[in-house]
Specification:
alpha/beta, Rossmann fold, six-stranded parallel β-sheet, 12 strands
């Protein structure tokens, strides 16, 4: 076994991207059990450390801020002074290879983005975006380990499932909505879904983050108007961290969510999950596993999925998100047989 004591991993993106990256880090830790792993990531995603003890330290690098070039220089300085033995970096930008070379770290692994990457990297790994994201990231570590970790693993103690429960987490990032990236059904449809599940005898639990306040309020008003205000459990605002939310998901018999970070937490926990998909590609964002089911519209859109594939914002018609509460409820009741 090589004497690898310090590993720097670089992965910029949202919290979901960091959860996708965990299997690669876990395999590295299996190969080099005595190595300390430092993860360079965006400040918005630092809560991933609440979910795992694989990561020993964080470098917070704000590459989306106004001072992105200063932040990258800061990363280079930290990397050079950190005396790392190996660096692993995701990202399809052709300048990633140059960034890694400037760190001075001897062993450098990243994606093959052209001739420069093949010259500057120890190994330039083929980038295949047409696969489950965990597998795409895990390819980065295949040159250095034979271990294969197929799914994210997080540190949440096993929880006893609460019978007959359906946990609903409707939200997506408000920033993504403001940028025109609509990825989920309306608050009204979420409300109708909660009401239908209650009528079917399910114990519905509501959860969400600060960005979900308006949606949760809509659900509350709808349930009250339908005489259900005392027939569900409201956990909105009671989960103070990603770890708290993970424990709540672990207790639920069924979880319903959007294409967002809680989905990837549920996958790590193997909770039976139904996830709303519209313009994004479920084949890249969820594993081919029995415990997770995409819920999609029958819209026959010729370019679906389009978000990230063909455009950076969603279209105005949003036919791919014309999913009814009945569609969602029937999917759960029929496929899960509850």
């Amino acid at each position: 076994m090589r004497n690898i004591k310090k590993i720097l991993a670089i992965n910029f993106g949202g919290i979901g991207d960091e959860i996708f990256f965990l299997p690669a880090l876990i395999s590295l830790k299996k190969e080099f059990p005595d190595a300390k792993i430092t993860l360079a990531l965006e400040p918005r995603s630092k809560s991933v450390k609440d979910l795992t003890d694989i990561i020993d330290d964080l470098f917070l690098i704000d590459v989306k801020g106004k001072n992105r070039y200063f932040e990258l220089l800061k990363l280079i300085f930290k990397a050079r002074s950190g005396k790392f033995d190996m660096v692993i970096s995701s990202g399809g930008n052709k300048m990633i290879a140059l960034l890694l070379a400037l760190t001075g770290i001897k062993e450098r692994y990243g994606y093959d983005t052209g001739k420069l990457s093949r010259i500057l990297l120890t190994k330039a790994v083929p980038l295949n975006k047409n696969q489950y994201a965990c597998d795409m990231y895990h390819a980065l570590v295949t040159p250095v380990t034979g271990y294969k970790t197929p799914l994210p693993e997080i540190n949440v103690q096993p929880q006893k499932k609460t019978p007959n429960t359906v946990l609903i987490h409707p939200g997506v990032s408000k920033l993504s909505v403001q940028k025109g990236m609509i990825k989920t059904i309306s608050a009204d449809v979420w409300a109708q879904t909660a009401n239908l599940l209650i009528e079917k005898g399910k114990h519905v639990i509501l959860a969400g983050g600060p960005d979900d306040t308006e949606c949760i309020e809509t659900i509350r008003r709808y349930l009250k108007a339908n005489g259900q205000e005392n027939n569900y459990e409201d956990c909105f605002g009671k989960t103070k961290s990603l770890h708290d939310l993970a424990e709540l998901i672990a207790k639920a018999e069924v979880f319903i969510c959007s294409d967002s970070a809680p989905l990837h937490v549920a996958v790590a926990l193997k909770t039976r999950t139904f996830v709303i998909f519209g313009p994004t590609d479920d084949k890249k964002l969820i594993p081919q596993a029995e415990f997770v089911t995409p819920v999609k519209a029958s819209d026959n859109c010729p370019i679906k999925p389009c978000l990230w594939e063909h455009r950076q914002t969603t279209c105005k018609t949003l036919d791919c998100l014309k999913i009814t509460a009945e569609d969602i409820t029937n999917k759960i009741l029929v496929e899960y047989k509850v």
